[in-house]
Amino acid sequence: MLFALRFDFRNPDLAGTTMADRYAAALDMAEWADQLGCVTIAVSEHHGSPDGYLPSPIPMLAAMAARTTKVRFRIAALIAPFHDPLRLAEDLIFLDNISKGRVDLIVAGGYVREEFAMFDIPMSERGRRVTETVTTLKAAFSGEPFEYRGRTVHLTPGPFRPGGPQISLGGSSEPAARRAARIADGFVPSVPEVWEFYRDEVQKLGRPDPGPSPIGPNQVIALAEDADEGWKRMSPFFLHETNAYGVWQAQNNAASPYRTAVDADHLRTTGQYRVLTPEQLVAEQKAASFAFTQLHPLCGGMPPESAWDSLRLFEREVLPAFR
User: Fold this and answer.
1) How does the average pLDDT of the chain come out, rounded?
2) Which is deepest, 112, 158, 273, 295, by most CB within 10 Å?
3) Contact 71/33 with Cβ under 8 angstroms?
4) Would you place residue 258 in the very low, low, confident or very high pLDDT band (cuts 50, 70, 90)?
């Protein structure tokens, strides 16, 4: 079985956890996952969120890289309009070196109006800023001098990995999908419906058909010895996550896999958040064509102790069933 982790570091009041302790727990979890063969750890980026959502993915991955040796990392997603492209390129080259080439990134344009207001950036500039950022990063990752805003620049040192981190675009609109085909190494849609625009544009550009959408249902899975008891304990944090995303989605009219839920019972019926016993997860994965699980252990402000309970069950009772 392959598995991955993701973190966004929401820390609402109901969590009762300091940010320092939450960050420390995630570093311990990254080291734990690396030792067990985790394939990818992803972190996300938002700014000014009331629950402390991670604003600084590059420093977090640098800290994780220093505690690991094999697992790959992904920023999913880096919000381009809020970064100076040259300074961003320098930081990513540093991260590529400290991780020895284990980092990839998804670049996105952002959608939360409050964030754009905080940085005093017009939302109408998203497309231009994404294009400039990706173009600058690719040029900087070459290790050679390049033209930037009418002048020649040369960033040093160069990346560890030849060509630097792979750059995909994220997004939920037709313009984002077609832009990804033109300027990026790939596309990771927020919702599967826009994949066909990417697929069409890739073929118009004379490249091979990338095939059907690579993303599946957006689900959070956690483990407990008693699934009902686990749901009762964990559902307040699942509810916080979906409603926090849902508010952003509703306020900004953005396509998103998240929607607000009136209560935990309603949320459970959607199947987007699931608490399973280890035996249930093993049975599901053995019936699947490809055994893969992505875990979001600190989801919605989950206390580290509850997160570790789920991860330890995965280590003791799920992974051995596939080895």
Assistant:
1) 94
2) 273
3) yes
4) confident
Backbone torsions φ then ψ of 278, nearest 5 degrees: -55, -40
Please say if the pLDDT value at position 86 is more than 70. Answer: yes
Measured distance CA(311)–CA(296) in Å, rounded: 10
Pick the range with the lowest mean pLDDT from 70-79, 249-258, 268-277: 249-258
Residue 149 CB partners (closer than 8 Å, separation 6+): none
Q: How many CA atoms lie within 13 A of 101 on its CB side?
A: 7
| pLDDT the model gives residue 114 | 94
pLDDT of 151 higher than 90? yes
Residue with tokens 């004379």: 206
Provide the CB-side half-sphere exposure for 321 (13 A, CA): 17
Q: Are strands 103-108 and 167-171 parallel, antiparallel or unpaired?
A: parallel
Residues 6+ apart with CB under 8 A from 187: 168, 169, 170, 171, 177, 180, 181, 195, 198
Q: What is the CA radius of gyration of the chain?
A: 20
Angle at which helices 304-313 and 19-35 cross, to 10°: 10
Cα(138)–Cα(107) distance, integer angstroms:
12
pTM of the model: 0.93
H or E element, residue 72: strand 72-79
145 phi and psi angles, rounded to 5 deg: -60, 150
Q: What is the dihedral of CA 247, 4, 89, 160, to 10 degrees?
A: 180
pLDDT band of 229, cuts 50, 70, 90: very high
Report the alpha-carbon distance of residue 292 to residue 286 in Å, rounded. Answer: 10
Contact between residue 51 and residue 240 where contact means Cβ atoms under 8 Å apart: yes
The distance of Cα 161 from the centroid of its chain, to the nearest Å, equals: 21
Which two tokens mark 127? 């497309």
Distance CA 5, CA 58 (A): 16
Q: What is the DSSP string of 11-38?
A: --GGG---HHHHHHHHHHHHHHHHHTT-
